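Please, structure for the following, as tokens.
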Amino acid sequence: MKRSGCFLLCLSFLSGAICAEEPDPCGGLAGAGLTLCRNNEQTRRLQERLEQQIQQQQERQIQLDKQQREVQQQLESMRVQNESLRKELEREAANQPPSPAATNAAKNGDLKSWKADNPWFGSDYPKTQFAMRYMKELQQERPDLGGRALLDALSTKVDETFGAKH
């Protein structure tokens, strides 16, 4: 009885394993026919894998395209915001009377050479805004400071605050 139980158990295991495997489409063939059939089957499986890989690549490309559109929208939004801030800065600068120190610097040609040395002024809104505020503060603290010395103090403070040189 033990032998027949063991035999039945082995038989059920083998039949389960056989049923779980994909049926061999080349079963019953021999020789050149078997080789050709197996080559065709291998080619079919490779094509299926390749099609899956292509589909995955297409899905990745769709995701990348979507991310790229989002980044482009963000960049455009930042460009519009930067342009708006630049125009606002120009309006503020046009509406503010020049300070005596700035007028003296302009008379001496210091402002022109200082702007050449500090290209961020007028184009980098945060730095320019900071410099304008700091100049007001500095003029209150040190009314004797003017001309190129005042402008150099501004660029030094901007460099200290924002890190990189210009």
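The chain has a mean pLDDT of 80. The CA atoms of residues 33 and 39 lie 10 Å apart.
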